[in-house]
Amino acid sequence: MQEFKTLGQFIIEKQADFPYAKGELSRLLRDIGIASKIVNREVNKAGLMDILGNAGTTNIQGEGQQKLDIYANEQFIAALRSGGECCIVASEENEHIIPINSEISKSAKYVVAIDPLDGSSNIDVNVPVGTIFSIYRRKSMDGPAELADVLQKGTEQVAAGYIIYGSSTMLVYTTGKGVNGFTLDPSIGEFCLSHPDMQIPKAGAVYSINEGNYVHFPQGVKQYIKYCQVEDKSTRRPYASRYIGSMVADLHRNLIKGGIFIYPETASAPNGKLRLVYECNPLAFVIEQAGGRASNGRERILGLDVSELHQRSPIFIGSEEMVLAAEEMMVEENQLVTK
Fold first, then answer.
1. What residues form DSSP beta bridges with 263?
2. Which domain holds residue 224?
3. Residue 189 covered by a domain
4. 292 falls within a domain
5. Average pLDDT over all residues of the chain
6. N or C, fewer C-beta in 10 Å, the chain?
7. DSSP conformation class of 279
8. How confident is the model at residue 1 (pLDDT cuts 50, 70, 90)?
C-alpha cells in the first residue's frame, strides 16, 4: 500500500534541506497551495457561475483578460499578502511589482513571480489551464524590497513549480532537489504525494508547437519540424504533434511521457512571446531538475540575464535529446546566416 503523505507533511519533512529558511519557505509554499485550492474550486464551477469569458480589460502584455485571470490573480496576491513570508509579488497581470508593505512582511525574505492562470483563453472550452510560480530570496534586507529583487537569473530560484487544473488538479514543484507531484484529493481537500521524484524521459515521441505560425518560424525550427515528421524507426519518428495551447498542460504531458515544447521567436515577435521571469524560468527549473533541458534555442534559459519584469524569450524545453537536436538545427541556421 502506497504511503499517504500530504503536501504539508512533505514540505515539513524537507524543511531541513534549507536550514537558513527557518520555516518561511515551507509556509510560503503552503500559502501557494491554499490559493490554488481556491482557484481550483472556481475553475471547476466555471460553467455554473458568471466567471466565463472576457473581462473587457487588457493586461500589460496587451492581451485580453479573462474573468478568471483577474480572479486568480487576486486570490494568489491575497494569499501571499496574508502569509507574511513574501515582500514582493510580480504577476503577469500587473504592470509593476506589487510590494507587500504590511507589518509582518517588511522583513520577509522572499519574492514570488507568478502567472496566475496560464492558458486562460481555453477555460471556456474546458481545456486544462494552470498556474506557474517562481520563488527567489530577497537580495538585500537593507531598505525596502525593490524591482532588482525580482530581476534575478533563473539559477537563483529557490523554488518553482506549477499547478495544473485538469481531469485532476496537480501541484508539481522543485526546491532544487528533484521534482515531486501532488494530486488534490477533493474528499479531504489536501494535495497528496502521487508522483514522487518525477523524471522526464531522455527522449520522447511528441512535439508541441503552434504549427499555424510555421511560415513565420526561423529556418532552424522549420527544419526541426520536418525532422520530426520523417519516418525513422530507430528514433521512433515520425513524432506525434500535440499542441494544447496551454503551456502548463503541454509541458505536464511531456514531463510524464517525454516530448518537447517549442515557442520560438517569429517575425512578429522577434524576442519570443513567453515571459522569462514567471513562465520560462520556473518551468525550466522544474524540467532541469527532472533531468530535461531548457534553452532559448541557443543558450540555457536559467543562465539568461533578466533586465525587465515582463521580458520575453523563445523557449525549447523538454526531453534532453529532443531539445539538443532542435538546438543543433538552430546552430546550423546561425552558421548559414553568418557565412
1. 315
2. 206-338
3. yes
4. yes
5. 89
6. N
7. I
8. very low
Q: What are phi and psi of 190, to 5 degrees?
A: -125, 145
21 and 131 inside one domain: yes
Q: d(Cα 330, Cα 323) in Å, to the nearest integer?
A: 11
Is 294 a domain residue?
yes
**Is the preceding peptide bond at 270 cis, omega within 30 degrees of 0?**
no
CB-CB contact of 92 with 116 (8 Å): yes
- Nearest CA among 30, 190, 182, 59 for reference residue 120: 59
Measured on CA atoms in the order 272, 277, 282, 285, is the torsion positive or negative? Answer: positive
pTM metric for this prediction: 0.92
Terminal C-alpha separation, the chain: 62
d(CA 261, CA 264): 10
Q: Comparing 94 with 12, which gets the higher pLDDT?
A: 94
Residue with cell 520556473: 282
- Asked whether the beta carbons of 10 and 182 are under 8 A apart, the reply is yes
- Regarding whether 182 and 236 lie in a shared domain, the answer is no
Do 113 and 176 lie in one domain? The reply is yes
- The residue among 175, 195, 215 that closes a domain is 195
Q: Which CATH number is 13's domain given?
A: 3.30.540.10
pLDDT in tens, 64-102: 567 888 889 999 999 999 888 999 999 999 999 999 876
The whole-angstrom distance between residue 60's C-alpha and the CA centroid of its chain comes to 19
Does 319 lie in the same domain as 219? yes
Would the pLDDT of 338 be above 80? no
Backbone angles phi, psi at 151, to 5 degrees: -85, 60
For residue 158, tell me if it sits in a domain. yes
Do residue 21 and residue 143 come from a single domain? yes
What is the crossing angle of helices 281-289 and 247-257, to 10°? 10
CATH number, position 264: 3.40.190.80
pLDDT-derived band at 22, boundaries 50, 70, 90 = low
Examine the domain organization and report whether 98 and 20 are in the same domain: yes
**CA 176, CA 289: separation in Å to the nearest integer?**
6
SS3 20: coil
